[in-house]
Each structure stands twice: as structure tokens, then as C-alpha cells.
Amino acid sequence: MSLVGDLTEGELLDVLLPILGSGARDGDGAADHDGQATPDRAHVDEIGPGDDAALVHMPRGTLVTVDGLVEGQDFVWAWPCGREQDPADAGWKSIAQNVSDINAMGGEPRHVFWSLQCPADTPLARIEGFARGMRAALDELAPGCRVSGGDLGTASELTSTVTVLGEPGPSGAVSRSGARPGDVVAVAGRLGWAAAGLALLLGDAPVTADAEPFVQAQFRPRPPMGAWRESAPTSLMDVSDGLGRDAHRLARASGVRLELSGAPLRARADELLPAVRALRSAPVRQDVGTGAAPASPGVASGHSDDDAGAALRLVLTGGEDFALLGTFPDAASVPDGFEVIGRVAGVGPNAATGAADRVLLDGAPLPAAGWDHFAGR
Ligand SMILES: Nc1ncnc2c1ncn2[C@@H]1O[C@H](COP(=O)(O)OP(=O)(O)OP(=O)(O)O)[C@@H](O)[C@H]1O
Ligand SMILES: Cc1ncc(C[n+]2csc(CCOP(=O)(O)O)c2C)c(N)n1
Ligand SMILES: [Mg+2]
């Protein structure tokens, strides 16, 4: 079995760049890693991998985001439920979580920069698989995006840091601070599925067939790319850490209150019932990865929620589905793919007293609960 450490850095690049399909090394006119880059590219005025830095052009300005995926924190090679982590799924997620942030700004991903550190005794096949998963995610989620550079190194755990440059849509970047009283609040994509999958993976029992879709949602999240196209959202963000936590961030950034309705969220919770039932017989192991149960404490820790309550908790606090949370001027302007879940109100003169009522669910304050790396929950 070849190991990453059997290769030089240049040899490893020669293995990975063709898989990533970045173009500058695997065809005529490709750069030589010891020589001068002579890119033979569609955009001849751009410079990609092979030079000291990339040169890119984006006429409407450039959106930039970066996020890391770390072994032990974001995935583990052997899950307590008995499943092995497929490196291709980890590669998929490393792309998905980043192209999602460009999507969340109303933009199109254009360039990826991949910084990979791993132990020298990592099987080469694992890194090749990781790169194949990245390519698959780009093909499906961001076909107009290419790998334009990166960095390789060693570390005691695999760490994949992806930077994505994106191009704002025709009406410009959409921030999380533009929600205005009178707007409607809407969501595109799933809520709670990836968190249910994580709880199942961290559980003490094999995953049953009816719970498998939730595990797939954790392994290969599919952000609703471009769901904002042909619309004019007043604000947008992606739900990476849980609806409660991220809705508070949007409300605060916009200086508004979000009034959410329970009915559409309870309907979404119904979809999670098979996972909740499976979790009843698969208690979450607390000693794996971050040592933290996922953001589904009701299910995970023997909390006395009924199944519907536990499922709603997953919808309200589960991260990593990379849904889009947005606001639109009125219900008629909400595009296909988004579902209205509430309305935007002003904060009122007394709201300075506390952040708790920035987000209401059926009139009651919704806690800013969700994932936090440092709190481990
Ligand atoms: N080390 C850092 N230095 C500078 N800015 C940072 C740093 N870490 C985070 N930020 C900024 O803080 C903000 C919140 O970061 P965070 O990673 O939570 O982004 P997010 O979009 O809210 O979440 P996610 O990446 O999970 O979608 C972002 O604007 C980010 O650029
Ligand atoms: C082993 C293991 N432990 C915990 C989690 C859960 N988790 C990790 S990152 C994150 C939120 C988004 O992160 P970011 O804000 O960095 O984008 C969540 C919910 C996991 N996937 N694997
Ligand atoms: Mg985000």
C-alpha cells in the first residue's frame, strides 16, 4: 500500500491535480512543477495552479470564503455505529460547506483553493478518494468552479481547508443584514437531516435502512445552490450551525426581529421521525470526535421529549445541511424552492434589553441554540 510519505510533494500534486481536473497540469501546455507555468486555459488571462499565486478576474467583485474540515472535529474515520468514513464523502463535504457560503451571498462559486495537511503515513488511496469526492461535489454543486491553487503539508490529523472565490449574481452580493420589517422569512433546503445523521453515526448501533438517508445527508450535504436566482432576496445566509443560532445572527445583523411559525417547521420535523425512532435504540457515544453529542440533545441524552418534540429540536438546532435562510419583500416574490416560515418585524424601542426575543417561534423566544466549535455543541 503506498503512503503519502512515499511521494515527494511534486509527485503528490501530479496525482491529485488530474483528479481535481484543475486543468493546468494535466494537458498540453501544462505547468511543470519545477518550471514556468504556461497555462493552456479557457481564460487565457487567468493563471491557475503551478505558479506562486493564481490570477483571477471577476468583473462584479469577488466573494471570498474559507472553512476547514478537520479529522476528529468534523468527521472520524471509524464512527461508533460501525461505519467507516469514505474519504470521498469527506472531500465532498469540504467543498459543499464552502460553496454553500458563496451561495449564501447570492453568488456563483468560481475558484477553489485547497490546502491539505495530513500525516505522512496516510494511505495515498485515502487522499485520492478525498480529491475524487471534491471533484464530484464541484461537478454537481458548482460546475462553473475550478481548482485554481492550494498547498500541501503534513500534520498529525487530516485538515482540509478550502477557500472559494465567487462571483456575485447580477443584482450584487446579498448580505445577512438586509432584512426589513414587513419582509417574509423563507428557507430552501433541508433542516435537521445532517444532525440526525450525525447522531446516528455517533450512536452505539448499526444504522438501519430507513435511517440511511439521514446518514447520507451528513456525509454528502447538498446546499440548494442558486435557489436565489431570478429573485431579489433582501437578506440571505446559510444555516450551518442550526436554524435557531443562525436566525439570531441574521436578525441581529439586520437589526430586526424574526417571527417564525411553528406549523411549517413541525411539518419538516415529521420527515425526521424515522431517525428519531432509530435513535431511541442507539444512544449517542460521548467519547468520540469532539466528545460532544450533536445538536440534538433531546434525542441524544435520554431527554424526556416525545418523538415529535425531539424531531422539532433537530429542525431548530441541527447544523450542516447548509440550507438557505432568506428574507424577501413579500410572499409573491419568494422563488420556487423556498418555503415561507415567518415574517420580519421591527425590534421596537425596548428590544435593547436583550437578544432573547430577536427570534420568536409562535410568539415565544426561540433560543440561539445550535453548534459552536468551542463550546463543543
Ligand atoms: N480567524 C478569523 N479571522 C477573521 N475573521 C474571521 C475569523 N473567523 C471567522 N471570521 C469571520 O467571522 C464571521 C463568522 O464566521 P463563521 O465561520 O461562523 O461564518 P458563517 O458563515 O457564519 O458560518 P459557516 O462558515 O459555518 O457558514 C465570518 O464573516 C468570518 O469571515
Ligand atoms: C466528529 C464530529 N463531531 C461533530 C460534528 C458536528 N459539526 C461539526 S462542524 C458543525 C457546524 C458547522 O461548522 P462550521 O461553522 O465550521 O462550518 C457541526 C454541527 C461532526 N460533523 N463530526
Ligand atoms: Mg455561512
TrEMBL record:
GO biological process annotation, one example: thiamine biosynthetic process
Gene Ontology terms, MF aspect: ATP binding; magnesium ion binding; thiamine-phosphate kinase activity
Documented EC number(s): 2.7.4.16
Reactions that this protein is recorded to catalyse: thiamine phosphate + ATP = thiamine diphosphate + ADP
Coiled coil residues, start to end: none
Sequence positions that bind Mg(2+) 5: 241
Binding site for Mg(2+) 1: 67, 151
Keyword presence, Disulfide bond: no
Residues that bind Mg(2+) 3: 52, 101, 238
Residues the entry annotates as binding Mg(2+) 2: 67, 101
Matching HAMAP family: TMP_kinase (MF_02128)
Protein function: Catalyzes the ATP-dependent phosphorylation of thiamine-monophosphate (TMP) to form thiamine-pyrophosphate (TPP), the active form of vitamin B1.
Similarity field: Belongs to the thiamine-monophosphate kinase family.
Protein name: Thiamine-monophosphate kinase
Organism whose genome encodes this protein: Falsarthrobacter nasiphocae
Protein's gene: thiL
